[in-house]
Design a protein that fits this description.
Strand content: 15-25%
Shape: globular
Helix content: 25-40%
CATH class of the largest domain: Mainly Beta
Number of domains: 3
Mean pLDDT: 80
Number of helices: 10
Low-confidence stretches: 1-8, 298-330
CATH topology of the largest domain: Jelly Rolls
CATH superfamily of the largest domain: Jelly Rolls
Strand order of the largest sheet: 3-4-11-6-9-12
CATH architecture of the largest domain: Sandwich
Order of helices and strands: EEEEEEEEEEEHEHHHHHHHHH
């Protein structure tokens, strides 16, 4: 934020957790604010402040007049881009701060209706189930260290930006219903890019750019074409690659995790167990025993020929166990 023309930190205290530059267009931080701290300055990005702790009294000035409200746990506030904020909280506060760049909102608005960037409406202590679910998913991915890479968190952040633009802006852009699928050539470009980059950290923007599309439109059409989100597909393919390397090579687990795009061996093991019900070591041992007990044959299998499984409900809070957030019209 800006104060007297200078760029200063959003809050006096440093965040206990931060996504830093992990996700394109969105930043997530967890702050534990002290008693009677004050925030004064112009907001650079659109900000959503989500109360993770106890009820907290917040005072802010609007039109020169002070306003006070008790912010309940699970409720959030919205501070639009460019707004002058003068806020003081009279209790300690456990806060999730989500910053969304104006560019991200503008990209969605132009694609949806060709209109200007949505202007979010200021709110204090608001409650909305969909926003709460998306914020919890971002927090979960942040706390776990984004074991599946940046793609999942960026997809959730994009869904949050779209929902806020559609439901909490002055002029609400509407994404038209879309039942079509990706053209075959475009889908092939996206899938080939994913296959070639499984060992690397890839974002939703990276895949969409490879397909020659915007991230908003691509995410919707990819789901229509593949029956699952880009992040789910990438995770499945990484696990399939890991299965192949476990059964066809003698590589150690840390090398396999590096070749499949996981940040560490522990992340690979955790995700592998969630998706398959087995650890990588047990899977390798069982596969080896099974191969020894079968007659030899000349057929080998590529990673794509081994059946996969969906991202487990254990990765998603209980409020969203049946589905993953999608980018769609409301």
């Amino acid at each position: 934020m800006f104060r007297e023309g200078e760029l200063v930190p959003r809050f006096p205290s440093q965040p206990s957790l931060s996504s830093a530059n992990r996700w394109n267009g969105i930043k997530v931080e967890r702050h534990r604010l002290k008693l009677n701290e004050e925030l004064v300055g112009n907001i650079c990005d659109n900000q959503i402040c989500f109360n993770l702790g106890a009820p907290t009294s917040v005072t802010w000035k609007k039109g020169g007049q002070p306003n006070t409200k008790l912010i309940q746990p699970g409720h959030f506030s919205i501070a639009p881009h460019g707004q002058l904020r003068n806020v003081r909280w009279t209790d300690t506060m456990d806060l999730l701060l989500v910053s969304i760049t104006p560019k991200l909102l503008q990209g969605f608005s132009v694609e949806a209706s060709g209109s200007r960037m949505p202007e979010l409406i200021e709110h204090y202590g608001h409650s909305d189930r969909q926003v709460q679910n998306l914020l919890h998913l971002l927090l979960l991915d942040l706390v776990s260290g984004s074991p599946a890479g940046s793609l999942y968190g960026e997809q959730i952040g994009t869904a949050l930006a779209v929902y806020l633009a559609q439901c909490f802006s002055v002029k609400r852009p509407r994404m038209p219903p879309c039942q079509s699928e990706l053209p075959g050539l475009v889908l092939s470009r996206a899938l080939n890019f994913i296959d070639a980059c499984l060992a690397e950290s890839m974002s939703l923007q990276d895949i969409a750019s490879a397909a020659g599309m915007s991230r908003f439109y691509f995410a919707r059409l990819f789901r229509n074409s593949m029956g699952q989100s880009p992040s789910r597909y990438v995770t499945e393919q990484r696990i399939e690659r890991a299965k192949y390397l476990l059964t066809r090579t003698t590589l150690k687990l840390d090398e396999i995790s590096s070749r499949t795009g996981f940040s560490s061996q522990s992340h690979l093991s955790a995700m592998f167990r969630k998706l398959t019900g087995s650890t990588p070591s047990k899977f390798r041992l069982l596969a080896s025993s099974s191969q020894l007990s079968r007659p030899a044959n000349n057929h080998t299998h590529s990673p794509d020929s081994i059946s996969g499984s969906a991202i487990p409900a254990a990765l998603i809070p209980s409020t969203l166990t049946c589905s993953e957030p999608t980018i769609q019209s409301t």
